[in-house]
Design brief:
Elements (H helix, E strand, L loop, with lengths): L1 H37 L2 H4 L32 H12 L11 H4 L47 H10 L8 H10 L3 H8 L10 H12 L8 H7 L9 H11 L9 H4 L10 E2 L17 H5 L8 E2 L21 H10 L18 H12 L4 H5 L8
Antiparallel strand pairs: 1-2
Helix pairs in contact: 3-7, 3-8, 5-8, 10-14
The protein binds heme C (2 copies).
């Protein structure tokens, strides 16, 4: 009797469980489908959401030249916020596995710690990721070879690059329109009336707005040297390194400041710093700037990166060939490899062990710890 009872209950339980399963399998999709029809916000209409963006004021460091912001993309609080979400959201990549931040990690000065970057397909590109700090102040092109003219233009590239996010913009636009959070955020940031107006042009504008807020100007160097009233003091080692960095005699000097000049310490010029041994100017593995300008004399030239926060963005150079700053110093003191367009400021020099340590200590004083503490630069999800 008891076994019969038990069996009866077992069957009853199984039946309810499988009915429940059917409920989930059949009814929920039907429910979702019906929702979908009505709710893509009344045929995509967004006018019920308020559009009243407030200006985002940039905290302009007084010793930087004012940031050049395109007149058709002023910074707003809502635009910067949207850009930050997009920057950290893998929705921009083909299999939703990679966001901009996968290769631009805030804690690594927005670089990725890899020799060269790995895209969604698992393949590695030929170039190293770049820091994005103070990128809003660079006015002479983007990428190691300068092939993008503006930050807006730059942000178009990674999405469709097969070695990066490998997605089509048409798909990204569709995904953004169907997403539960983005239509509202786009409407708050830009004067659109309907989801259909969510386009790549607005997405890249928002991303560029966020990038322009990544401002770092509060390193120990800034506090010790560049203000009228220094708030901290350099150690003797840092001070000696500073003097070496800026030393201006013509022989046996590191000469770093000629190319990585304050206040940004780089970002705006394309030069050959002697990394590669070549037979002639057509012999560079990666033509760099020359492939963009079409001038043979620019072959093998690359963007001179900013050295602010440089201790965090190893490995170094366009192909990540140097793992440490010590290796970088060895390269410069060797004088590099000759080519017809080798920059005349690459001359080779000798340094004592103390001088090396001093220069390294100075480079590390360009790290801005407080920049990295700001929650508004980090992942919002
Ligand atoms: C797969 C890794 C990867 C992803 C994903 C990626 N980047 Fe990059 N980023 C790189 C690499 C590598 C470079 C240098 C490429 C070159 O010079 O050809 C770069 C360069 C840049 C630069 C140029 C900086 C300068 O000083 O010139 C900006 C800006 C930038 N990325 C922003 C973005 C944004 C915005 C996204 C998302 C839409 C993104 N990146 C996604 C790897 C990546
Ligand atoms: C002739 C101009 C020039 C001089 C002088 C110069 N650099 Fe550079 N520097 C460059 C260029 C150009 C690059 C990028 C080269 C590349 O990747 O192909 C670079 C890259 C670097 C990098 C790698 C940055 C990164 O994000 O990967 C570091 C670090 C660096 N330089 C430090 C120094 C130091 C320290 C000195 C002084 C000892 C110095 N540089 C002198 C032009 C110069």
């Amino acid at each position: 009797m008891t076994t019969q009872f038990r069996n009866f209950f077992k069957h009853a339980l199984k039946l309810t469980l499988s009915m429940e399963r059917w409920f989930f399998i059949v009814l929920i999709p039907i429910f979702l489908l019906t929702c979908k029809k009505d709710s893509p916000l009344n045929n995509g209409d967004l006018t019920h959401i308020q559009h009243n963006p407030l200006p985002h004021e940039i905290e302009q460091p007084e010793f930087f030249s004012p940031m050049e912001i395109p007149s058709d993309n002023p910074l707003t609080i809502e635009g910067v916020r949207l850009g930050r979400f997009l920057f950290y959201d893998p929705i921009l990549s083909a299999d939703s596995s990679l966001s901009c931040a996968s290769c631009h990690l805030p804690e690594l000065a927005f670089a990725d710690g890899q020799k060269t970057s790995q895209g969604v397909t698992g393949e590695f590109g030929s170039r190293s990721s770049m820091s994005l700090i103070n990128v809003g102040y660079f006015n002479n092109g983007f990428f190691w070879d300068g092939r993008a003219q503006t930050l807006e233009d730059q942000a178009l590239h990674p999405i469709e690059d097969p070695l990066e996010m490998n997605e089509s913009w048409a798909n990204v636009e569709e995904k953004l329109r169907r997403n539960p959070i983005y239509p509202k955020m786009f409407r708050q940031a830009f004067p659109i009336k309907n989801e259909i107006e969510i386009t790549r042009d607005l997405a890249i504008k928002a991303i560029a707005q966020f990038e322009r807020t990544l401002i770092s100007a509060n390193s120990k160097y800034d506090q010790a040297v560049s203000f009228d009233n220094p708030t901290v003091e350099y150690s003797q080692l840092e001070l000696d390194g500073y003097l070496l960095y800026f030393r201006d005699i013509q022989t046996n000097h590191p000469g770093c400041h000629h190319c990585h000049a304050p206040p940004l310490f780089g970002g705006d010029t394309y030069l050959n710093n002697g990394l590669d041994e070549v037979q002639d100017l057509n012999d560079f593995n990666d033509l760099g700037y020359g492939a963009v300008t079409g001038s043979q004399f620019d072959n093998g030239k690359f963007k001179t990166p900013s050295l602010r926060n440089i201790e965090l963005s190893a490995p170094y150079m366009h192909d990540g060939r140097f793992e440490t700053l010590e290796e970088v110093l060895e390269h410069y003191s060797s004088g590099g490899h000759y080519a017809d367009n080798l920059d005349p400021n690459i001359t080779g020099f000798t340094m004592t062990q103390y001088e090396k340590e001093a220069l390294l200590a100075f480079l590390k004083s360009l790290t801005d710890d407080r920049f990295f503490e700001q929650s508004e630069i980090k992942n919002p999800f």
